[in-house]
């Protein structure tokens, strides 16, 4: 194969990858602005500056586009890593650190979580990634439980409830800033210690 042909093939592959990335980013921005439910393939194509057929050349269906969008968004906005607080010996300090990280994360990524929670029941392509994130958060909650054995179930339920975005959003809607939210949810847990 000639060098000129190899060069053209590399350039074509690069151009295709750039087009695919524009489609993914257009989808991500539309999801954040108007939600997955209102995002159409036509709107994605228009935002990406391509034809609808080009979107379908890169992605077999809406679910494939949404999966690529979710993966890209999570790459740009990774959730808090439990390793950040795993080494904290004091269970209350560990819990506070986890809540601080999650609440700061939700504050930064609020728009996407709002529309995703709103649209999840109507958009099958969102249901798996949202369920996976919910499992991740539940697992984080499991790792934060402490206290007397008789109260562990109540503490687990409280920690899991306090870690999810809808709880953060509800407290946000009440006008609480993150420090006030932290004090409140830690008070819930401390009240269960026995």
From TrEMBL:
<keyword id="KW-0238">DNA-binding</keyword>
<feature type="DNA-binding region" description="H-T-H motif">
    <location>
        <begin position="40"/>
        <end position="59"/>
    </location>
</feature>
<keyword id="KW-0805">Transcription regulation</keyword>
<feature type="domain" description="HTH tetR-type">
    <location>
        <begin position="17"/>
        <end position="77"/>
    </location>
</feature>
<keyword id="KW-0804">Transcription</keyword>
<protein>
    <recommendedName>
        <fullName>HTH tetR-type domain-containing protein</fullName>
    </recommendedName>
</protein>
<dbReference type="Pfam" id="PF00440">
    <property type="entry name" value="TetR_N"/>
</dbReference>
<dbReference type="InterPro" id="IPR009057">
    <property type="entry name" value="Homeodomain-like_sf"/>
</dbReference>
<dbReference type="InterPro" id="IPR050109">
    <property type="entry name" value="HTH-type_TetR-like_transc_reg"/>
</dbReference>
<dbReference type="InterPro" id="IPR001647">
    <property type="entry name" value="HTH_TetR"/>
</dbReference>
């Amino acid at each position: 194969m000639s060098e000129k042909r190899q060069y053209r093939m590399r350039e074509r592959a690069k151009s295709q990858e750039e087009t695919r990335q524009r489609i993914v980013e257009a989808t991500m921005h539309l999801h954040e602005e108007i939600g997955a439910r209102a995002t159409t393939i036509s709107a994605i194509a228009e935002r990406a500056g391509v034809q609808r057929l080009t979107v379908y050349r890169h992605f077999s269906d809406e679910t494939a586009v949404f999966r690529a969008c979710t993966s890209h968004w999570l790459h740009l906005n990774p959730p808090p890593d439990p390793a950040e607080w795993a080494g904290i010996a004091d269970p209350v300090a560990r819990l506070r650190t986890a809540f601080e990280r999650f609440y700061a994360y939700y504050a930064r990524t609020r728009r996407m979580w709002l529309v995703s929670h709103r649209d999840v029941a109507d958009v099958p392509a969102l249901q798996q990634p949202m369920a996976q994130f919910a499992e991740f958060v539940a697992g984080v909650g499991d790792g934060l439980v402490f206290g007397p054995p008789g109260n562990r179930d109540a503490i687990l339920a409280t920690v899991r409830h306090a870690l999810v975005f809808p709880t953060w959003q509800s407290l946000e809607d009440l006008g609480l800033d993150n420090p006030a939210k932290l004090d409140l949810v830690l008070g819930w847990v401390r009240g269960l210690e026995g």
